[in-house]
Specification:
By secondary structure, this protein is mainly beta. Helix content is 3%, strand content 51%. The chain has three helices and 51 strands. The strands form twelve sheets. Strands 1, 26, 27, 28, 30, 31 and 32 form a seven-stranded antiparallel beta sheet that branches.
Length: 613
């Protein structure tokens, strides 16, 4: 879950000519200082790394840094025979932009990072560079370079929109084209074939559901169609097609992490769908006010930011529950930054909002972390929650923000990790830091407190190895107390008493514990949950049932996307939908524990008997 903290930052978009390096003319258009100043930015796209934002007016393409927000570069065209700019999309590599023009043409722009010294291109008919005003603020230089211009086979029909995935998609009024990012045409299909029935409709949004071979299309009549098994040719019959009618859809986004799809409508209602196999099943509905203009899932797939025509940004959980709502202004676009930061924009204005999310906690306190601080809720206060706020040491946060993973101990100490290295609080506003040499090369991917130790899964980029390290929380972070090499990068770490569970990206769940007085790490057992159909990249929580840690037949409780699953005896069964799961001891007769979970509407519990093991 995400909670908004701090104020709202407001930016006025500067769409004037970017000053700096002399600009040679791009091949396909001539540079003009006059622009469509009344329209402003009509299309936005966030880079795959979530660090850059590209915006398009009818005549130009602009590039901004997300945080700090600053304009880096721009490329402005005169209106030519190619038409106005109608959409733009990023390649998955993050170094290419495809810009769709209304008359069936596509510009290929290269997004290139420069060093301290700017080298101008001499081949003026092919390339273009501009220095952005934001580069003077210590932000690395990023330039736009005009490369090739492609012409679609159907130039008599205006381009409507574009979509990005493993390949580029461009829709005109009559056809949908699929292209490689090298510019080769993969296939094409008529809009009427995709729509599957009679009627004069246009494609208003399209894309691919994550890493699947399933494409989605939102049509101008508000219907949504999902087409599976898409290859060089498309078979739009039978189980390959799923139509979602009666939605009056206006916006759609899919999270590959939680395998959830959110659909916004004209009435303000947001529908949530879970992808199971090749079919989407509705699992949630959230009513709202005002047409949904845009929505976007967070990187971890646990929250979706929804933009309404009323000017509100509404944060919802993966099953639709509203967490908070903020009114900022006339918004058409929303995107997530690298950390817990949301960017919203309209034609002439933009806003930045900071959020905090929950971290794993070994105690009963509610603990949150943002990009550069942690919040721990103090207990035992009758008049309401009291938060202890600790700003992460500036020497660490300045070089490694945003904070990506965090964990809280039973006594309120916090361990955090950003882009590199780790920091551990002493509980009194002070932080212990690792040595600079380790901080530069070690990336921590998951953290959990096991007693007085921090169990930290990491990747050593110098040795190209993955490890599990145990650090004493009350001592200097000079060297781990014990460590063990892992076969693959860890995605989830959880602690249960003396047992530490590590789920690797390959789907192997291993149980470790400290031995030899805390000087060694021993492997107790391992379970291949991938063989049971568990996708490790979509797992948010994993745990043994308490009291069964020494039992060879213990069950593994897994939260995969929005599903609560139990893995036992080589099989995985789905119990139901879940946003969050916890296990507590009950000790009533033969009942030793209970599994509690929230399914979006109510809290459910299932007692677990010793007989089950």
């Amino acid at each position: 879950m995400y909670w908004r903290i701090g104020g709202v930052e407001h930016y006025v978009l500067n769409l004037e000519e970017v000053k700096g390096v002399a600009r040679p003319r791009p091949r396909s258009a001539t540079f003009s200082g006059t622009q469509d100043s009344t329209m402003g930015v009509t299309r936005w796209a966030s880079s795959p790394c979530r660090q850059l934002l590209a915006g398009a007016t009818a005549q130009g393409v602009y590039l901004w840094n997300h945080k700090p927000f600053a304009q880096l570069s721009s490329l402005v065209y005169e209106t030519t025979e190619f038409g106005r700019i109608v959409d733009l999309v990023w390649a998955p590599s993050g170094d290419t932009l495809f810009v769709a023009l209304s008359r069936g043409y596509i510009y290929e722009l290269s997004v290139q990072r420069r060093g301290d010294r700017v080298l101008e291109y001499v081949f003026a008919t092919q390339h273009y560079f501009a220095r952005g005003p934001g580069e003077e603020n210590g932000i690395g230089g990023v330039g736009l370079a005009q490369r090739r211009t492609f012409r679609l086979p159907d130039t008599n029909s205006d381009v409507v929109c574009a979509g990005a995935a493993k390949y580029a998609m461009v829709a005109t009024g009559s056809h949908v084209y699929r292209m490689t990012w090298a510019g080769a045409l993969k296939s094409s299909v008529t809009v009427s074939e995709v729509y599957g029935r009679g009627g004069d409709v246009e494609v208003v949004q399209m894309g691919v559901l994550g890493d699947t071979d399933m494409e989605y299309f939102v049509f101008s009549d508000g219907s949504v169609r999902i087409i599976g098994n898409v290859g060089d040719s498309v078979d739009m019959v039978g189980d390959n097609v799923q139509t979602l009618d009666g939605l009056d859809a206006t916006a759609l986004d899919y999270s590959a992490t939680s395998m959830m799809m959110a659909v916004g409508t004209t009435t303000g209602t947001v529908y949530l769908y879970a992808l199971e196999g090749k079919q989407l099943h509705r699992v949630g509905r959230a009513d709202g006010n005002g047409r949904v203009r845009a929505l976007r899932w967070s990187a971890d797939g646990t929250a979706v930011a929804c933009v309404h025509a009323t000017g509100h940004i509404v944060m919802r959980t993966l099953l639709g529950r509203e967490v908070n709502s903020t009114r900022v202004g006339d918004i058409e676009f929303v995107a997530w930054g690298v950390g817990a930061r949301v960017f919203a924009a309209g034609a002439r204005n933009a806003w930045g909002l900071g959020f905090a999310r929950a971290m794993s906690s070994a105690g009963n306190s509610v603990c949150l972390f943002s990009d550069d601080m942690v919040l721990v809720q103090a207990r035992g206060v009758d008049e309401g929650a009291v938060w202890r706020v600790e700003h992460v040491a500036a020497s660490y946060a300045g070089a490694n923000a945003p904070i990506r993973v965090a964990a809280c101990s039973a006594d309120g100490r916090v361990a955090v990790a950003g882009t590199r290295g780790m920091a551990v609080s002493t509980g009194h506003g002070r932080w212990r830091l690792q040595r600079a040499a380790r901080e530069r090369i070690v990336e921590y991917t998951a953290l959990a407190w096991s007693g007085s130790h921090v169990a930290a899964a990491c990747v050593d980029h110098a040795r190209n190895t993955a490890r599990l390290e145990f650090w004493m929380g009350g001592r200097a972070l000079d060297a781990p107390a014990a460590s063990i090499d892992l076969d693959a990068r860890a995605v989830v770490v959880s602690a249960h008493g003396s047992a530490v569970l590590v789920l690797s990206e390959h789907g192997m769940l291993s149980e470790y514990a400290l031995a030899a007085g805390g000087a060694q790490v021993e492997l107790r057992r391992a379970v291949d949950v991938a063989a049971c159909g568990v996708d490790a990249h979509c797992v948010r929580q994993v745990m043994w049932a308490p009291g069964a840690c020494g039992d060879s037949g213990a069950a593994v409780v897994v939260v995969q996307g929005a599903q609560l699953r139990v893995v036992r005896d080589g099989r995985a069964s789905t119990v139901g939908r879940a946003e969050h799961v916890s296990i507590s001891s009950v000790n009533i007769g033969s009942m030793h524990s209970a599994v509690w979970w929230y399914d979006g509407m109510q809290v459910l519990a299932a007692p677990v008997s010793l007989d089950d093991f």
